[in-house]
Amino acid sequence: MRQTLDTTTYGEHLARSGPASLPFDRFLAQRSAESWSFTGRWPADQNHLGVTEQFRIPESPTEARGRRIGTAIFAAVAGIALVAIAVNAFGSSQAGSGAGSAAFGSANSTGGSTSVASGSASLPGPAPSPAAHTGPPVSALVLNPATPSAASCVGTGDCFVVRVEAAPSCSSVTLIVQFYASSSATVADRYQTLSLPITGTTFTDVAVAEPSASDAYADVADSYCSVG
Prior knowledge:
Number of helices: 4
Transmembrane segments: 69-91
Radius of gyration: 33 Å
Mean pLDDT: 74
Keywords: Membrane, Transmembrane, Transmembrane helix
Region (Disordered): 115-135
Shape: rod-shaped
Structural class: alpha+beta
Largest sheet: 5 strands, antiparallel
């Protein structure tokens, strides 16, 4: 059917265009590109009447255009859905809190333990620039809610879990945790300075209460050994 339609329409093209006729391969490429255009019209040689009747082609140019528009709409909706999923996944990867922040698993890796932090109430604004301190830095990060941890929220509020890596000759760590209203925020709403003993040989997890229901994101602004 395709071969018959190609040769028939190319013959019409030769008769119609004369010396300005396109080579056969370029003519086919042009017809193929036109069939997927969104101009709303097809040239007459796209749907040759005699070939349509001979092979009982059921799809009219209007139906074909409708199919193309439907495909475009579906692709647009699917693209929006993928963007929404990506944004949500990014937000989840940044968050340590939220509605399900207390639902951490009970599993713990070998060498890990939990600890209780002490410190002052959270203060408004971002944390001040890290001050010079004598203790060496210690690696610490806010866990994603899907990460297993035995640390749990104190009371009924939501919380973040901060994982602190064990450091040689360090028995206590000072943390400065910042809280944000959204994953895209560049300036923290509040911060809190905490201290906790290191009890695990590999890492120690500690639950940090969410200061406000609007601050569903957090990061560690600074962490250092406070007691050798």
